[in-house]
Amino acid sequence: MRRSLQFGVLAASALVVVACGNTTGDAGGTGPAPGTPATTSAPPAIVSPELLDVGTYPTVPRPPLGTAGNPASGAVADAKQMADFVVGPWEVDQSLISPYLDSFYLIGSVAALLQLGPEAVAAAAGRHGLINGFASERQAPDKSAMVNAVLRFADPAAAAAASTDMGDAATKQPIQGALPTGASIPGHPDAVASTYPFTPHGSDRSRATIRSFTAHGSYVFMQFVQSVDGFDPASALVAKAIDAQGPSIDQFKAADPGALAAVPLDPTGLLARTLPPTSAVGNAKNAVYDARGAAHFQSDPIASATLFKDTGISEVAMAKTNVYQAKDAAGAVTVTDSFGQEVSAEGTKPADPVPALPDSHCMAFPKGFYCVAAAGRYAIEARGEQLRDTQQQVAAQYVMLTAH
After folding, report:
1. Do both 297 and 357 map to the same domain?
2. Fewer CB near the last or first residue (10 Å), C or N of the chain?
3. What is the helix (H) or strand (E) element at residue 342, kind and residue range?
4. Distance CA 335, CA 349 (A)
5. Average pLDDT over residues 126-153
6. Is the Cα dihedral 189, 192, 196, 202 positive or negative?
């Protein structure tokens, strides 16, 4: 399902194979498709909990979630908060909005970094004490693709050593029988980069491919870019990504490497008021993101950014359901109306709305159901295999937000 990448499985294009080989990851919420008109329906009156079928789902918020409790969990929690400061490829080139690979990766360990490149590159990061990171990925199908990642190390010296080591390791991975060669990134002589051509199976058109590693304080910026137009356009994209990423990550207040166990799991408190997962979930779930961070999980991040700005979305909690906090009740209605219109345009079939929530919207996919509803200043979205279960998720989430 394209509307909520966390709720669905995305198909890979030919460019996926070119990038990093076979990868699996969890995929995240969205906004309206380009040109979808936002609506301004009047906010519905709050519905009494007694009228709603919540099934066996909880309707009372969880106790405060506290801190990570151990360094490994803290590194993951810190990486989720880092996502708010990682540049999305669409911020570098507005054509880069289509899902690519899994569209994002949360990196909480060296093993997780294997999803983004050769084993030798991940091993090099590990030798220099990789703490965590976050990667955002998009493509303009059959033209270009970008992975922009920020990796965190203990200090600038470790990051500088890691960028050199990782860059060297990338040149030792044969691609279609040939080794990559060193490359220069315009305006960034400190970038350790390499390039190689790649021709996907069944295609007669080669892609210029670049891997680049640049130290910036305690971080390493890692880009993977492809372009069917050749090396110069690809290197220009890398340069623009580096230029944009520096000022953004400088705003991130990263946790002290020696105090990762103390990283808060729910800084805003909204996650405790979001329906908790009932089973193991992808590693980007169970978190709260700001509007920019949430864009990494949207099917159209540019359209979503506009919707979020217009409706004052300040926080997005992602767990069993997704909850979007708008500036007011009218904004929440606009979000749910826009989401409903977008999913309806994807070839779904209308399904019965959530009982007793007449302003809710439910749609049927070939496999599964999707429902949205407004609850005061919050917009709720849920997906399930059965319609009644999906409706119950929304109902329970509605009670949790409006009755407490």
Report:
1. yes
2. C
3. helix 329-344
4. 20
5. 96
6. negative
